[in-house]
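Rotation project, supervised by the postdoc (A.L.). Task for the rotation student: set up a whole-complex structure prediction and record inputs and outputs verbatim in this book. Inputs entered:
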Amino acid sequence: MILAWIHDVVEAVQSCVSGMRTTGRFLVENLRGEGGAMSATREYPEQPAEVVGDRQRGHLVNDADRCIVCHACDTVCPVDCFKMDGERDGDNKMRASRFDIDLSKCIYCGLCVRACPTDSLSMTRTFEMDPQHEGKRFLFRRNSKQVDVRFDAPEMERLHALAAQPREALSAEDRAWLDARIDDRGQHLIGIYGLGFFTPEQKAEADAAREAKKKAKDAAAAAAKAKAAAAAAAAAPKPASVPAPAAGATPAAPAAPPAAPGAPPATKSGPDAASGGSPTP
Amino acid sequence: MNGFGYAVDALAAWLAGGEPGWIALTIAVLAVWVVPILLLVFPIAALGQILERKIAAAIQRRVGPSSAGLDGPLRFGFRVLLFFLPRARQDRIFAAFCNLRPVRSLLLVSRRLGLGQFVADGIKMLGKEDIVPTGADGIVFRLAPYLALAGAFLPFCVVPFGQHLVMLETEVAALFAIAVSGIVVVALKMAGWGSGSKWSLLGGMRAVAQLVSYEVPIGLAVGGVVLWCGTMDLHAIVGQQYEPGVFSLLGWNVVQSPFLATLAAVFFIAGLAECQRSPFDMAEAESELVSGFNTEYSGLRWGLFAMAEYTEMLLIGALLATLFFGGYQSPIGEEWIVGLPVWLEVPIHGAILGVKVVTVFLVMMWIRWTLPRFRVDQVMRLSWLVLVPMCLVSMFGLAVTLLAAGGTHAGEAFGRVASRPRPDLHWLGHLAAWAVPVAIGACLVVMAKKKHGQVHPALQRLTGGRS
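Outputs recorded:
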């Protein structure tokens, strides 16, 4: 019995020591910063975080030059985070005079991006929302009235120009003007400067994505058309009038509606937006 | 001599310019004991929490508190110091001060270490609502945290911090420490009972059962040291561990005999249980009892309990160091410290004791984040069936060693480290005191292993491949 007791005690000591050795190794490794959390943890606000995955839904931004104020996004939005006004420009095209995305409401579901007929809404891959971050490009509500503050195009230009400069370089007047609109301490985020701005890189990225998407769509449409033609040819020449539109409509349905209204502005404002977009930011 | 230690006597005499009256004595006691202990132990207990969180994080491969620095407290300090200036001016001076390169890097380091966390926690705790539940027994409920804190602090009276720094030099110091820390049992029971909640009551009962059980091995472990040293005076016990020369480590009780080393281990384990630390934290088992006797406490009262727990950890560390690890003496020779003037000797000795205490503290944390909690019956079993027999065997072994040593001899007196008579062991005797018990123990372990378990491969080879 005594031997069993001794055996128990020795076992207990051995298992404790082995456990302590494991945790001790963790402790030492961590303190040295090799392996483990100390090296793997990225302390996000201080250190930049990586974008994970291709379909990251970061900021919701609107490329105002392409927007036709069709309210498709507004209709589909589950949380009603859009506020927009439009006006006719010289070419009698609808243009957004105001496009506010209430980012404190937005749930980043991306439905509006799908609904957008002109691909003017898009989601960036960066997700930096920290008002303390250097790229402060966000608008905050200081009081409830300010949600309804309307920014027209020149004001947006000014806001963006001022926000890009270091604060110390601004004149007192500019600073006061800016302070009335941006709250660094961030009570209530209402949008990325209303009309939506891209950084040049984001702009390029969005344009490239749009191009790729359009190419894919065209390819899909061409393939569908070829398939439909082949099917029609293969079926029979006699009931040609009835199945041909049906066969053409079913596979091409997702591609057709955006192609019809989207084609003229896409082709027309594509270079237009690129030339208009680059000087703005 | 008023029994409050040399430092108090000297200060009181200096204050009164002759025979000290009670006013001078009170001031001296406050200046030497109360204020320093409050100023030292409270922040240490608070910093202990930071240390614990950082160590827990490192063991669990996390980062831990890493944002709250000392900027806030520093800014507050500037506000207070420069109260006569307008606020913008204060801020500008503060910013200029923080921009100094060393200050900035220090602040950065403090932020990485999360040093400001305990200030934030303290303010949070002070700001919380102080709730006394409807069903609670008001007086008992309110009194309990103070008693717990008193029970944790009082034993520090008899812990020698340095040659001149013992608050209460008494012949029964060891007994006093054990007896007074028993107040904690009452306090926990009061907290459990007074809360008027079943979780608290269960936690309190568990706490009492556990603490009472573990007072036995602690008492026996201290008894072993008392048997070896022939005195209960903690300062004398420290003095007895004095060894002239560079290898003053060899004078420590823990290396005198394997039985004393065993007692040190038992004392440490039972001490863990006494402070309700994991793996013995049944009394506040978060997962079963919603933190037991703490359940109904909030704000400052809860903070006092947490403080009592950390203070008690410090106390166990201090007692362990005093009884087994040479107290405030340095492991690398004592003469160079003893000869120093008092104002130099006191902080050095205090720092050495502090290092020992903090080491024990760290090991306690290491254990806490390694071992899972015991079941209730396992805790009892460990105390009564393992630790107590170990203590008894060790005491018996110590008695035999003392008999074999045949008498004591007075050590060399040096400074105020009064060397008490101690067991007279030749170096051969020392060797035998280690070799014989270790050999017997090793034999028993090998026999136990052969009979009940897997034999270590090396041993298997040694014994001819039979298992």
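Student's summary: Chain B has three domains: 1-62, 133-425, 426-467.
Supervisor addendum: The first strand of chain B starts at residue 408 and ends at 410.
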